[in-house]
Design brief:
Blueprint lengths: L3 E5 L4 H17 L2 E8 L2 H4 L2 H5 L4 H21 L7 E7 L2 H9 L6 E5 L5 H7 L2 H8 L4 E5 L11 E5 L2
Parallel strand pairs: 1-2, 1-4, 2-3, 4-5
Antiparallel strand pairs: 5-6
Helix pairs in contact: 5-7
């Protein structure tokens, strides 16, 4: 039974479904949740030319981080009080950062959405969930938002073992 659950959260409908499933699993198993988000580095969202233009990249970076922290706080507020929860904010590449934390030995299952905020970018680089599945040493549960699953009204998920 999985008891130490790591939830990768980016605010997308798929991530919200992943959090919902993680809450159910943690409640049933008397487990713990770690809910994490990864703030992308400026190199991901700001072209190099913008750093030399009149855009204040540092201020924009602070604003983006504030937004991610607020999103994470709102997600953690959904976790019932009887479930121990830790929140983590990291910076960098989402897939690599999630894999590093998953492989730290502190978790026995990763739960994440099948698609996140970066779906257009993933067409070129491979989806974050795909990269986590391939890099994680622990099983990964990939959740799909209910309204986007082949017209099915029921949420779906799949567990992929490393």
């Amino acid at each position: 039974m999985f008891r130490r659950l790591l939830v990768a959260f980016d605010g997308s409908p798929h991530a919200q479904q992943a959090l919902s499933e993680a809450i159910d699993m943690a409640g049933a198993a008397r487990g713990t949740l770690t809910v994490m988000t990864v703030v992308p580095s400026p190199g991901v969202w700001a072209p190099r030319a913008a750093w030399e233009a009149t855009i204040d990249v540092a201020a924009l970076s602070r604003e983006i981080e504030r937004s991610y922290r607020e999103m994470l706080d709102e997600a953690v507020d959904l976790v019932p009080g009887e479930i121990p929860v830790t929140k983590i904010v990291r910076h960098g590449s989402p897939a690599a950062t999630i894999v590093d934390l998953a492989n730290s030995g502190e978790h026995d299952l990763v739960i994440m959405g099948s698609r996140g905020r970066g779906s257009v970018r993933s067409l070129f680089l491979g989806s974050v969930s795909h990269q986590v599945i391939n890099g994680s040493t622990v099983p990964v549960l990939v959740a799909h938002a209910a309204e986007e699953v082949r017209g099915s009204p029921e949420p779906r998920s799949q567990v992929v073992t490393a």
